[in-house]
Amino acid sequence: MSDWRPIETAPKDGTIIDIGGRAFDGVFERWCNAHWEDRGGEEGTWRGPWSDGYESELPDDRFVPTHWMPLPAPPSPTHE
């Protein structure tokens, strides 16, 4: 079962999520650890640690998000 949800339902409160969508070549891509940056009103942008390792705006000229999913639960700590 997939946890992907329509991007229109994604939280826009700074919650860290994964987003997915079609890249310019039509291939589905997943961008991990993204969050919405509010710019007032209906304006804003997705930000995250993209391929260069630095947080920046989503490269929307090459990728359009269509879906999102919550981050998975972290693993349980192991005790020795």
Give an account of the 3D structure.
The chain has 80 residues and is mostly beta strands. The protein has one domain (5-70). It is 0% helix and 46% strand. It is built from no helices and 6 strands. The chain has strands spanning 5-6, 17-23, 28-38, 44-49, 55-57, 63-70. Strands 1-6-2-3-4-5 form a 6-stranded antiparallel sheet, with no helix packed on it. A hairpin with a 4-residue loop joins strand 2 (17-23) and strand 3. The radius of gyration is 14 Å and the shape is globular.
Question: Could you say which overall geometry the principal axes of the C-alpha atoms support?
Answer: globular
Unreliable stretches (pLDDT < 50, length at least 5) are: none
Order of helices and strands: EEEEEE
The helix fraction, in percent, is: under 10%
Mean of residue pLDDT? 81
Q: Kindly give the count of domains.
A: 1
Largest sheet: 6 strands, antiparallel
N→C terminal distance: 34 Å
Total of DSSP H or I helical runs spanning 4+ residues = 0
Taking all Cα atoms into account, the compactness measure Rg is 14 Å
- Spatial strand order of the main sheet: 1-6-2-3-4-5
* Secondary-structure content class: mainly beta
Strand content: over 45%
